[in-house]
From TrEMBL:
Keywords: Magnesium, Metal-binding, Transferase. Belongs to the FPP/GGPP synthase family. SUPFAM superfamilies: Terpenoid synthases (SSF48576). This is Heptaprenyl diphosphate synthase. Gene3D superfamilies: Farnesyl Diphosphate Synthase (1.10.600.10). It holds the Pfam family polyprenyl_synt. It comes from Actinoalloteichus caeruleus DSM 43889. InterPro entries: Isoprenoid_synthase_dom_sf (IPR008949), Polyprenyl_synt (IPR000092), Polyprenyl_synt_CS (IPR033749). The keyword Transferase applies.
């Protein structure tokens, strides 16, 4: 279990979830230990290099948020069982696989505080490792039935489609904000949506509740990305733990930037600065100052608040209890971290 996902007698924080109920805390902690044990078993291979490269990012840590969301969603059914644990491990394998591929596409040199697989070995090894993890995920899901297999196949398609949309950019004349929100729904929201759907479906939750958990997961995934977008611009490094302006340095146009650029109508100093990655610290500082003074941050926070309202509407359709409270706290947390 990762250091950010602790267990205890209640009042513990699992990733971004604060669990006050001792029974729920114990159930999630036990479930996560089972997921971790299963993942370690699945990452072993008779080929030593595959075992080494597959364990590389796994051992570097991570919040394990997707398996945690799966286990939490199961609380709206009959609770955690063997199938739920397999599903939780499968979604984490898909997440890890996507990180190996993302690092190749982004030419990243670091991931989770360690050298990325493509930097430590090479691009081919990183891609093959990601493929191996996708295969392991498919192996697990094959035990869960035809519907579960269909869901993960659809999720693979959404992940690829989202990456393709991001790589090619919006079509000429298309709304860039709408395009961006579609990208994050597919790239980030789709796998968390599947996590919620699996947890509810495989624990025997009612069909309407499974649908609500899927939609809630998609909204939560998008909220995480939007809140990260805001934090990258508006939070001091001492508070967020991240270096402000990382997206600017990487040439990534995030939601607050797109809103601000829309206000400039393609004219102005900010538009000029955002035409490509910024390597000069003075230009990064200037761009951050202009973004903080723009309406981009306000509009991004308004979008985050709208997603939060939609998420709470889904939560209102689910049974009350400790799991519902934990998800409500999660929604509140994602808004509070941007203020």
């Amino acid at each position: 279990m990762s250091s950010s996902a602790r267990t205890g007698s209640g009042g513990e924080r699992f990733s971004s979830l604060n669990i006050e109920d001792p029974g729920l805390s114990s159930a999630l902690g036990s479930g996560l230990r089972e997921v971790e044990a299963l993942l370690r078993e699945l990452l072993r291979s008779e080929v030593a290099l595959i075992s080494e490269t597959s364990h590389h990012l796994f051992e570097a840590g991570g919040k394990r948020f997707r398996p945690l969301f799966t286990l939490l969603a199961a609380q709206f059914g009959r609770g955690i069982n063997e199938d739920v644990v397999k599903a939780a491990a499968a979604v984490e394998l898909v997440h890890l696989a996507s990180l190996y591929h993302d690092d190749v596409m982004d030419e990243a040199s670091m991931r989770r505080g360690a050298p990325s697989a493509n930097a430590r070995w090479d691009n081919s090894i990183a891609i093959l490792t990601g493929d191996f993890l996708f295969a392991r995920a498919s192996y697990l899901v094959a035990d869960l039935g035809v519907e579960a297999a269909r869901i993960i196949a659809s999720t693979f398609g959404e992940l690829v489609t989202g990456q393709m949309r991001e790589s090619t950019g919006p079509a000429a004349g298309a709304d860039r904000v709408s395009h961006y929100l579609t990208v994050i729904a597919e790239k980030t929201g789709s796998l968390i949506a599947t996590s919620g759907q699996y947890g509810g479906m495989l624990s025997g939750a009612a069909e309407a509740e499974v649908r609500a958990l899927r939609r809630l997961g998609e909204l939560v995934g998008s909220m995480f990305q939007i809140s990260d977008d805001v934090i990258d611009i508006d939070s001091p490094a001492t508070e967020s733990g991240k270096t402000p302006g990382t997206d600017l340095r990487e040439g990534v146009l995030t939601l607050p930037m797109l809103y601000a650029l829309g206000d400039e109508n393609g004219q102005g100093r900010l538009t000029e600065l955002l035409r490509g990655p910024l390597t000069d610290d003075r230009q990064v500082a200037e761009a951050l100052e202009l973004l903080r003074a723009s309406d981009g941050l306000r509009k991004a926070r308004e979008t985050l608040a709208d997603y939060a309202r939609q998420a709470r509407a889904q939560l209102d359709t689910l049974p009350n209890g400790a799991a519902n409270d934990a998800l409500g706290d999660l929604i509140d947390y994602m808004q509070a971290r941007t203020t």
